[in-house]
Write a structure and sequence with these properties.
heterodimer; A: mainly beta; four-stranded antiparallel sheet; 0% helix; B: mainly beta; six-stranded mixed sheet; 11 strands; globular
């Protein structure tokens, strides 16, 4: 089984809808991250969490919120989706000692119409 | 604004040739440097990291770091069609193990290896 899983893998939604993307990991890592990827822009950090009680905004947090339900679960929500949130979303994890060595989930392709 | 720049490509090389991928970064205080490979529609996977000036070799891959020039590169020897992917450069702008240390990614370079 994959160490980092994301659900759903693909989602098409309409403008204004609320949507949640979920991430689970079995690596036992404390730290989890949400990124979005747009063509030519690399990966941009949305939110990150160093433990269940620690949530931090990344470079592009506006329009997003997160919840760290447990060490192994980190969810990303779009409260009112808009078309420019159409992107590929990745969850990643790292352990306490090596924040810079991150392991990525398979990604969720989100389309907002 | 801390920036990581890569030529988007595509970089096209014939099979068996050396592919050279380049990355520049804006902050002289940068500490750690990473290369991720991303196949189309897949997630990034770490292939190399380098912390010190000079070269680091791992199989067909060599990472080269020049902190004075704020430049990091990835050489792929004996390129194979299976190496065709997008290569992402990532940089941390702080100390290793620092709680505030985050990766900043470049936009990636698309590599095409032609048989």
């Amino acid at each position: 089984d994959a160490d980092v899983t994301q659900t759903p893998r693909n989602r098409i939604t309409k403008t204004g809808k609320r949507i949640m993307l979920e991430c689970s990991q079995t690596k036992g890592h404390d730290r989890m991250y949400w990124y979005r990827q747009d063509p030519g822009l690399g990966l941009r950090l949305i939110y990150y969490s160093f433990d269940v009680k620690d949530i931090n905004k990344g470079e592009i947090s506006d329009g997003y919120s997160v919840s760290r339900q447990a060490q192994a679960k980190f969810s990303l929500s779009l409260e009112s989706a808009i078309p420019n949130q159409t992107a590929l979303y990745f969850c990643a994890t790292s352990d306490f000692l090596r924040t810079d060595t991150q392991y990525f989930g398979p990604g969720t392709r989100l389309t907002v119409l | 604004q801390k920036e990581v720049e890569q030529n988007s490509g595509p970089l096209s090389v014939p099979e068996g040739a050396i592919a050279s991928l380049n990355c520049t970064y804006s902050d002289r205080g940068s500490q750690s440097f990473f290369w991720y490979r991303q196949y189309s529609g897949k997630s990034p996977e770490l292939i190399m990291f380098i912390y010190s000036n000079g070269d680091k070799e791992d199989g067909r891959f060599t990472a080269q770091l020049n902190k004075a020039s704020q430049y990091v590169s990835l050489l792929i020897r004996d390129s194979q069609p299976s190496d065709s992917a997008t290569y992402l450069c990532a940089v941390t702008f702080g100390l290793n193990n620092n709680a505030g240390n985050m990766l900043t990614f470049g936009g990636g370079t698309r590599l095409m290896v032609k048989p």
